[in-house]
Amino acid sequence: MAQLFGYVDVTDSGFIAAVLSIAFNPLFWNVARWEHKTRALSQVFGSPRAACYCLGAVILMLNYVRCHRFTEAMKSQPKLEGLDCHWAYYSGLAILAVGTLFVISSFLALGFTGTFLGDYFGILMEAKVTSFPFSVLDNPMYWGSTAVYLGWSLMHASPAGLLLTAVVAISYTIAVLYEGPFTEEIYRQKQKGAKNK
User: Is 0.85 surpassed by the pTM of this model?
Assistant: First the structure.
C-alpha cells in the first residue's frame, strides 16, 4: 500500500473530488433513515413508493457522478508499469465481470425498492432474500461494486484507482455497520407487529 502512495498525488483536485464523491454516497443514503422516522419524503411525493423511486433515481445519478470522478481521477494519475500488461488487464476484466454479476443479480433478486432502501420507506420484502448472490456473500451489491472498481483499476493499471477502491471498500464497510442493524430492527418490528395481530 505504501508503494501506491508514491504513484498517487492525493492532493490532486480530481483525486480529492473522487474521494469526496465516494464518501458522500453512503452518507446521503441515510436520508432514507430520516424518512423511516418522519415519513416526510413519502408525504412530499404522495406515497412511499414514489418517494423511494425518487430517492433511487437520485442515488443512481450520484453513482454516475462517483464513477465519472473515479475514472477521471485514474486518468489524471500515472500508470503502474508492473500492472500495465495483459495478465493484469484480463485479471481486472474477470474481476469486473464477477463484480457486475453480483451487482446485477442483487438488483434482480431485490427489485428496485429492495435495492434502493424501500424497507426504510415501509416497503418491506416478504422474507429475507437468500437466493444467489445472497447465498454466496453478504451484501453482494456492495462487494460486487467494489470488485467492479478493483477490476476497472487493474484494467487501467492505475495505482490511484487501487487506492480509491480501498476508499470504496472502507465506505461500504462503514455503511454495512450502520445499515445492517437498522434494517434488521425494521424487520424485527415487522415480525413483532405480525405477532400482535
Answer: yes
